[in-house]
Structure to design on (233 residues):
């Protein structure tokens, strides 16, 4: 009897050990990639361009909140646009816990499983849920708390967290424009294993050229929305 129990204990210890090795391997594998756009350059760039370009946030900050310098107001040692830009970077940090939550397959009939799935790590929540989750310190939901506290107390720290959160949610919106992030495609890369996404690689490689484009006219794909029939571009 004791012999049997001892053998069972040994089997369990070996199984636990195998599971640990597998988990460490998977974490290691995931650690190096799975990001969408490069967060150091591209996500920062997208956020900065959006805030300084087409967004009306500068006017709103001046007219509705009373920041006379708009996005150039210094809050907690950074300008507001810089907090939003840094949100684009921070949403991928730490990469191995946040990046797997940057996926959403809109064709999934059940949004509980519309995020990334990597056996044996399991399912990660869809980015739609992650963007609004109370488990995410920089979600849209939590950003409203920071904003509320900022308005009540005038705390620069709370304002800074509000603007950083906006930047982090913008990161998720940007990721949704990456084909590999709107399907169950982990596009991992580690060492000799390379299943990375050609589009993301292209954007990363050509980021300087993209910056040089600086175009004013955006042509909308006619297959998108009502532009399909209206003839407008
Ligand atoms: Zn991301």
């Amino acid at each position: 009897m004791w012999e049997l129990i001892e053998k069972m204990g040994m089997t369990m210890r070996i199984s636990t050990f195998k599971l640990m090795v597998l988990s460490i391997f998977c974490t290691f594998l995931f650690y190096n990639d799975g990001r969408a756009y490069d967060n150091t350059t591209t996500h920062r760039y997208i956020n900065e361009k959006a805030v300084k370009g087409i967004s009306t946030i500068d006017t709103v900050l001046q007219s509705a909140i009373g920041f006379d310098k708009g996005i150039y107001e210094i809050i907690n040692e950074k300008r507001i646009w810089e907090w939003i830009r840094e949100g684009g970077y921070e949403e991928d940090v730490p990469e191995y816990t946040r990046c797997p939550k940057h996926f959403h397959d809109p064709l999934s009939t059940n949004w509980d499983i519309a995020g990334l799935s990597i056996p044996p790590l399991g399912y990660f929540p869809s980015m739609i849920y992650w963007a609004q989750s109370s488990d995410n310190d920089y979600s849209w939901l939590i950003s409203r708390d920071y904003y509320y506290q900022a308005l009540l107390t005038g705390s620069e720290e709370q304002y800074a967290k509000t603007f950083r959160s906006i930047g982090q949610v913008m990161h998720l919106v940007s990721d949704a424009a990456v084909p590999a992030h709107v399907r169950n495609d982990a596009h991992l890369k580690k060492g000799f294993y390379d299943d990375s996404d050609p589009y993301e690689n292209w954007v990363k490689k050509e980021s300087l050229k993209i910056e040089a484009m600086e175009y004013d006219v955006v042509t909308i794909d006619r297959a998108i929305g009502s532009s399909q029939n209206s003839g407008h571009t």
